[in-house]
Amino acid sequence: MNDQDKQMLLEAFKFHGHKCPAMPMGLKAGLAARKALGVERSKDKELMLISETGKSHAAGCFLDGLMMATGCTYGKSNIEKLYYNKMAFTLIDTQAGKAVRVRIKPAFLAKALQSPFVQQRKAGVPPQDIPPEITDPLVERILNLDESEFLDIGEVHNVDFQKKRGIFEAKPCAKCGDLTFVDKLRLNEEGKLLCIPCSGYEG
Amino acid sequence: MINHKDFYETGLKLHGHKCPAMPMGLRVGAAALNKLGVERAKDSQLIALIELGEDHCATCFADGVQMITGCTFGKGNIKKLNYGKWGVTLIDRKRGKAVRVTPRGEAMLANKKTTFFTEYREKGIPASQVPPEHVDPLVERVMNAPDDQLLIVGEVFDYKWQDPPHSFKGFICDMCGEMTAEPYGRVWNDKKVCIPCREKAAKEGK
């Protein structure tokens, strides 16, 4: 890791909230995908990340690392979970129409799920309470791994990516007064504009 | 007490560009944490319910909320309700308490009338390409305005959260050879497979 990536790692730990091996795994996987595509971190929505992860163990931490490395964030909505519960993802360069799929090598992941860290997690210990003598060497190991030792990086392939335009107009709800984007305002019988919860509609 | 200013730099790094919405998320999140009297979530102690959806200009807001509350998309303790509003409900799972915080409507309307929106964002120019003189004053204002000018902080109320079961079991899909969590396993003839392989096999009639 170069100095810039090390700085990013520190910020990623601050963002994520605890030290664990899966977040740095995601960070390195995201950096590897960016390198394969030859792209910078996404400032706006230049990149899109489709993650095959869901709610399985370690997937969440992995994804926080991916967000930090790629700039594909939940806020900007250029990230999506498919809930396949696989430790794999596709990074898309929306401008060039190129994509790459990256996965954690199955044998590496199977072994990682036997680690003393995961044993503690299975026993119900929250990640931040696991002793550093267990966590730190595992994190160190991930940081020192060559990407080819734990990642399968697919071929860069072409994709046809259609962009959606954002919604900029917002009006107040006639009942609660909250300012609401117009695509989610609903009309009542009197023709007044209401937000979803005030309207009684489900969506 | 958490200070939103301690999280601006890292928030900016995560988010990727300067805009007023990410800092607004920091303000709303900080007010919610302080009202509940809780620390940032190291793991999944808190849950944030975000009323915004996917396709609004101000979704950047959710990155500020992630940064300050520690409720992250990765950890899965943040959820969009798709109401198209800026309210955030922060839940302390252990104590079963929650609070809703929203930016004041008039503060948001004033933001929307600035050149950042009218001259740039509404014309389709990405936030990272807006000149600093049109962004910086907005960020300044959101970061420095007193809470009561910017936010409406609700009362703390009871909120019981039911945890879904946590799964550690996994298997290797017989078709693609990838690790898959057990509850998501599907059966195809005599094989144990993942969802996409099951769908593909069914489509191809193998």
Q: Can you walk through the features of this model?
A:
The complex is a heterodimer of chains A (203) and B (206). Chain A has 203 residues and is α+β, with helices and mostly antiparallel strands. Chain A contains eight helices and ten strands. Chain A has helices at residues 3-16, 22-37, 59-70, 106-112, 116-122, 132-144, 147-150, 196-199, and strands spanning 47-51, 79-81, 88-93, 98-104, 151-153, 157-158, 170-172, 179-181, 186-187, 193-194. In chain A, the strands form three sheets. In chain A, strands 1, 2, 3, 4, 5 and 6 form a six-stranded mixed beta sheet that branches. Chain A has a two-stranded antiparallel sheet with strand order 7-8. In chain A, β1 (47-51), α3 (59-70) and β2 (79-81) form a beta-alpha-beta unit. In chain A, α1 packs across α3 and α2 (22-37) crosses α3 (59-70). The model of chain A has no long low-confidence stretch (mean pLDDT 91). Chain B has two domains: 4-158, 60s Ribosomal Protein L30, Chain: A; 170-204, Wheat Germ Agglutinin (Isolectin 2), domain 1 (2-Layer Sandwich). In chain B, a hairpin with a 6-residue loop joins β7 and β8 (179-181). Chain B is globular and about 65 Å long. The N and C termini of chain B lie far apart (60 Å). The chains are: A alpha+beta (203), B alpha+beta (206). At the A-B interface, α1, α3, α4, α5 and β8 of A face α1, α2, α3, α4 and β8 of B.
